[in-house]
Specification:
The protein is built from nine helices and no strands. By secondary structure, it is an all-alpha fold. It has two domains: 49 residues, Homeodomain-like (Arc Repressor Mutant, subunit A, Orthogonal Bundle); 138 residues, Orthogonal Bundle (Tetracycline Repressor, domain 2). It is elongated, with a radius of gyration of 19 Å.
Length: 193
């Protein structure tokens, strides 16, 4: 019985994620999610009290995925970045690839649709900003006395650029993303060693 509940919960979240990616936020209603999952709406409410809980579960998946992306970049044995721009690119490229592969993530990540989601993104950014600060300092690309606030602000700026990029083009407008890279490199460069 418990396994069936886990499977139904997963089916609901999978259906919601598919609808978000295919048709956008407004189309992914609980009713549509239930229909897509083949689960009566009354049963959907058994597993999730409202749409925001479903959204939060989807975003949790992406936070976990993006956490792995950051870990892979920050612990990579690939050639070390020699410049701040190379470090920015090494971080932006896989994050951008995740958003491009998962349109449901962009639907939830940037829109601030509910406090649960805003808090998940904020917590993720705060954790990754700290790790990125350490990564850049250890590679002598950022001065050791750089306030950690600088990286938090860089993450906020990156989010805004990506938000604009994905609003302009569902695949992420490359011109906007290039501007993000330039802006982040210039800003962080003011704190170089």
């Amino acid at each position: 019985m418990q396994r069936r509940g886990v499977e139904r919960r997963r089916a609901i979240v999978d259906a919601a994620e598919a609808l978000l990616g295919e048709r956008g936020y407004e189309a992914a209603t609980l009713k549509a999610i239930g229909e897509r999952a083949g689960i009566p709406i009354a049963s959907v409410y058994h597993y999730f009290s409202d749409r925001h809980e479903v959204d939060a579960e989807i975003l949790r998946r992406h936070v976990d995925g993006l956490g792995k992306v950051f870990a892979a970049v920050l612990q990579s044995s690939a050639p070390e970045p020699r410049t701040l721009r190379e470090a920015v690119d090494a971080i932006v490229d896989p994050v951008l690839a995740h958003f491009r592969r998962h349109p449901s993530c962009t639907e939830l990540w940037f829109a601030g649709r509910h406090d649960l989601l805003v808090e998940q993104v904020r917590a993720f950014d705060e954790e990754q900003a700290g790790k990125t600060w350490q990564y850049l300092v250890e590679r002598n690309l950022l001065a050791a006395d750089t306030p950690r606030l600088v990286l938090l602000l860089a993450f906020e700026v990156a989010n805004r650029f990506l938000d604009v990029a994905f609003r302009r083009d569902p695949a992420g407008d490359d011109a906007v993303i290039d501007e993000a890279r330039t802006c982040l490199t210039a800003y962080l460069g003011t704190y170089g060693p």
